[in-house]
Specification:
49% of the residues lie in helices and 2% in strands. The chain is built from 11 helices and 2 strands; from the N terminus they run αααααααααββαα. The protein has a two-stranded parallel sheet. Helix 3 packs antiparallel against helix 4, helix 4 packs antiparallel against helix 9 and helix 8 runs antiparallel to helix 9.
């Protein structure tokens, strides 16, 4: 159940109208890394957690709801940045306030040029926020990722918060309004907060690597293929021990020759690792049973209900 509180979570303010920045800010309203995407992603992911993982359900629904609050802040800021546009579009006089705001013929031409790339922002919306990105591309559910496995979804959310954070960071470079910057800084900071919360939740799921349930094939989990000509670059991603499995990286300097010599990687044996096909099969079976039991045991026998109401 959602209950709308009319005050914003953060008191968004603008010093003066700025239609151009309002258009840029649409990225966080209806863009692929925006607040609506985040809200719908966490909201959707939460459903599979309700009964088997109620703590993660609570986390996802709380953050999803906060993201809706952030969407409201972004929408309110866009509306204030468009201050007067809606009313002046209804004013037939050429010398209306919006034209004065655009400060001369060059600015007017620039505004019209931008409108050609995102006509809905002014022509169809009448001077209000739209569920599009800054170029007018409509929001789509294709932005949302929900795979039904917490180790996958939480990693996806960490990445989502990272992308949203950097977009706010970039947006701050395109406005000189201190009030708008303060709002953007608040929203950017909450992305950092959510990143840490999702990371902490992921760490409560053990084991959580690799993502999902099935383990990687020990014949291929620690091979690095040098797929480009030129100087060989070495680093912790292709030498020493791997970060999660602790396997020794096997550097394949000439991938073409290696594939030909092994008849397409057939007949290989695990190298640089203690893992074997037998140990992997045991882990697969054990983790599959554990995760399956977690989900199945949470389902009640007979009638099922979502909520228990307390007076």
């Amino acid at each position: 159940m959602f209950h709308h509180v009319k005050e914003l979570q953060f008191n968004a303010r603008v010093s003066k109208p700025d239609p151009r920045f309002a258009r840029l800010l649409l990225e966080q309203f209806g863009g692929s890394n925006g607040e609506l995407k985040a809200a719908m992603q966490y909201f959707t992911q939460a459903f599979t957690c309700k009964q088997p993982y109620p703590d993660k359900y609570d986390l996802l629904m709380d953050i999803a709801t906060e993201e809706f609050s952030h969407l409201e802040i972004v929408g309110a800021t866009i509306q204030m940045l468009l201050g007067g546009v809606n009313g002046e579009l209804k004013n037939a006089a050429e010398e209306s306030e919006i034209m004065k705001l655009l400060d001369g013929s060059a600015a007017k031409e620039s505004f019209m040029h931008e409108a050609m790339f995102n006509p809905q922002f002014t022509v169809l919306s009448g001077g209000g926020p739209t569920l599009t990105d800054s170029n007018g591309t409509p929001w789509t559910a294709a932005y949302v990722t929900a795979n039904g496995d917490l180790t996958v979804d939480l990693r996806s959310n960490i990445a989502s918060e990272s992308r949203a954070k950097i977009v706010y960071e970039y947006l701050m470079k395109f406005t000189d309004d201190p009030s708008v910057k303060e709002t953007l800084r608040f929203l950017m900071t909450r992305e950092v907060t959510h990143y840490q919360q999702f990371e902490a939740a992921l760490n409560t799921i053990q084991p959580n690597f690799p993502p999902g349930i099935l383990q990687g094939d020990p014949r291929h989990s620690n091979t690095y293929y040098n797929m480009s000509n030129g100087p060989d670059i070495r680093g912790p991603w292709n030498e020493g021990k791997s970060s999660q499995l602790g396997e020794t990286w096997q550097y394949i300097a000439d991938p073409v020759a290696f594939v030909q010599e092994t008849s397409g990687l057939q007949g290989l044996k695990p190298t640089g690792t203690d893992r074997t096909e037998s140990s992997v099969e045991k882990l697969n079976k054990a983790l599959s049973e554990e995760r399956s039991e977690e989900v199945n045991s949470a389902l009640p026998k007979g009638e099922n209900q979502w909520s228990t109401y307390h007076k």
